[in-house]
Design a protein that fits this description.
Strand content: 25-35%
Oligomer: single chain
Number of helices: 11
Length: 395
């Protein structure tokens, strides 16, 4: 389906490249909705200052296929405010999204300049914006796996993820000399080399979902989602925007940003990264508990940050979680370093006779040791169900 959108007749086509919002995400049972509202507010402020022609969102708008009501409300408010600023919004579904849910109301939203390609329908959805140099074709490709493309292509064209993406893009009929932008949510490699990834990203074993960047030859810019660290892959114009917030402690060293992309004449693209500052940073502290709780060490960073504490005490620490949480109220988890004495028992190991304890008891103790608090009732119920299912399968 082709769609034309009026755009300002400037000399440069400017757009924001975002991805992996993961609205509704929880980390270590902490609800991040307020953090997400705060960071999306920063992006809206930046949009008011930069006045982009479009805002591109390359998948994983939500963190799960059935998002909580607060997440739906927040995304609705964000898209509404962007549309109110005169920005075209161009989004695709990611592997965390429900394509059908994102499709709901999409035809009505498109009248306000918000285009969301939830489901794949045989070819990328085309949206055309214009500037003084002419049209810019934006091609919206939702997260794609061979099963999603099977109704539209012969089986021999869909042997791998790369084959599948290549087949889908073959249906994007591009005019020579025009500028083309692809928005996609895939795991992209370059010459067999994988990009940097972190612990919060789920990928297929053995890289079976890998797509080589050469598949995107001919596109002036490729706006990717799926990985949380901002980075180029293969060539400068094939980029992951990264997530706007840190979603795991493996991301603590990452600098989150908005990619501001400017298209000039054909073949000329510039990208700059505008930094984002979170409501609460996410960081790791390490050392003996007496050192970590000293006022001068507590105030060396923001005590309100989301914290993982790695305790290096040689002996067991009484009420470790309570003592740390008294000065770090957003303590997310505790890890206990191995004791200096090799003969000492591991502080993360379950105590007692393991052979006479249930899987539920062992996991509950492991959870308490790792996180400094009891296993929540909701997770306890899920654990009971998982154990029950496993026992039934073994019977």
């Amino acid at each position: 389906m082709k769609k034309k959108v009026k755009s300002r007749k400037g000399n440069v086509m400017k757009f924001f490249h975002l991805a992996d919002l993961h609205i509704g995400k929880r980390v270590n049972e902490f609800d991040l909705l307020e953090d997400q509202k705060y960071i999306l507010g920063q992006i809206l402020t930046l949009a008011g200052r930069e006045k982009p022609d479009a805002v591109v969102i390359a998948g994983d708008l939500y963190d799960r296929s059935v998002p909580p009501s607060g997440a739906v409300e927040l995304l609705d408010a964000f898209l509404t405010e962007l549309a109110g600023k005169g920005c075209a919004v161009l989004a695709v579904s990611g592997n965390h999204d429900s394509p059908e849910r994102l499709d709901f109301g999409s035809r009505i939203m498109s009248r306000s300049g918000v285009t969301i390609a939830g489901s794949f329908r045989g070819k990328p959805q085309e949206v055309t914006l214009t500037d003084s140099r002419g049209p810019v074709r934006f091609w919206l490709l939702p997260y794609l796996k061979p099963a999603y493309a099977a109704p539209y292509f012969p089986p021999e064209q869909l042997g791998s993820y790369e084959d599948t993406v290549r087949a889908a893009l073959s249906a994007a009929k591009r005019e020579s000399g025009e500028r083309n932008v692809l928005v996609a949510h895939q795991f992209v490699t370059a010459f067999g080399t994988e990009p940097e990834r972190c612990g919060s990203e789920t990928l297929s074993l053995g890289g079976s979902d890998a797509v080589d960047f050469s598949v995107f030859d001919g596109f002036d810019y490729v706006a990717l989602g799926h990985l949380h660290g901002p980075q180029r892959i293969g060539r400068p114009e094939v980029r992951y925007a990264g997530s706007p917030l840190k979603y795991s402690f493996s991301e603590t060293r990452q600098k989150k940003s908005v990619a501001v992309v400017e298209l000039h004449e054909k073949g000329s693209v510039s990208v700059r990264l505008e930094p984002l500052s979170p409501l609460h940073d996410m960081r790791v502290i390490r050392g003996p508990i007496e050192e970590l709780t000293k006022p001068e060490n507590v105030t060396s960073g923001s005590p309100q940050d989301y914290i993982r504490a790695e305790l290096t005490d040689r002996h067991a620490v009484a009420r470790a979680a309570d003592r740390l949480r008294a000065v770090y109220p957003n303590l997310m988890c505790i890890e206990f370093a191995a004791a200096a004495d090799p003969a000492a028992p591991s502080k993360t190991a379950a105590s007692g006779d393991v052979a006479h304890r249930t899987p539920q008891e062992l996991f509950a103790e492991f959870y308490r040791n790792q996180n400094g608090r009891a296993l929540p009732n909701e997770e306890r119920a899920e654990l009971e169900e998982a154990v029950r299912t496993a026992e039934e399968e073994e019977a």
